[in-house]
Amino acid sequence: MESKFIGCMIGCAIGDALGAAYEGCPFSNVDVTDVAFTGRWTDDTHMMIGMAESLIECRGFNGEHMTWTFIRNWQKEPWRGYGPGPPRVFRLILSGVSWREAAKKLYGGMGSFGNGAAMRIAPIALLYHDKPEELREVAYRSAEITHAHELGMEGAAVQAYAISLALKINKEFSPEEYLKEIAYFTRSRAYRDKLLTAVRLLDERNRRIIVKELGNGVEAFNSVPTAIYCFAKNHEDYAKAVLYAVSLRGDADTIAAMTGAIAGAHHGEEGIPRAWIERLERAEYIKKLARELWKLKTLLSST
Q1: Which of 84, 145, 156, 202 has CB 3.0 to 4.6 Å from 117, enough for a Cys bridge?
Q2: In terms of C-beta density within 10 A (0-12 exposed, 13-18 middle, 19 or more buried), how is residue 293 classed?
Q3: Tally of CA atoms within 13 A in the half-sphere of 158 that contains its CB
Q4: Measured between alpha carbons, how far is 80 from 57 in angstroms, rounded to an integer?
């Protein structure tokens, strides 16, 4: 299980770094097999790191502490490719708005339904993987910091549950049953419909149809089910799963990051190409955080 914790977080960062070069590129219905991997990740991994740092320091979820950890990291490295939403939230908080209220002020008071809360959720998925309803609640609360719309919050919970299931997969894995179990977990019809559509598309070879039916955009409901599908369709191999996610283009870094977190949780560190790990920026620090999360989980489970 320790290897799976490491694989999840390293896998997320590698997917992010692989997809960054293809973010926003026009769709092309071809395989991505030759990627010039620089190992440089974006805000997806940066916020995942902040989430892990806060969970470890607080020995669990603390919304205020996590908020200020995100802000601190953003101030240090604002060039990581942050979307427009989180920096707006951070500036509101720095101006005196409560961290509990800032995200609710965006987009006409509805909050964001982007995939930013789902892309970073891996550490919460790991720490709460054996308690589905607590996992759901903590995922919602962590999402609310920057993505207060119910669809943004639900995306974080759905991605977290997908990771938690991947940790437990055995050799008799059924992609169909995996997708259906996540579909039954979600409280949102938007996600349920997409995940059940994903079951129907498991044998589909035309990526254009996948993008048309599941999406490849920055909206959580147009990317979280897609990432889960990318893993389910290519569950036998980490590299195949993330490269397939990258091939869908669109918000490629985030979809590949989410796919990589799920696939890494399933395959563990040893299932990820060594060359990618060796080139990954701050790989040893990410591994250290994953190990500390594993130790924290072990400690909490024994008390």
Answers
A1: 156
A2: buried
A3: 35
A4: 23
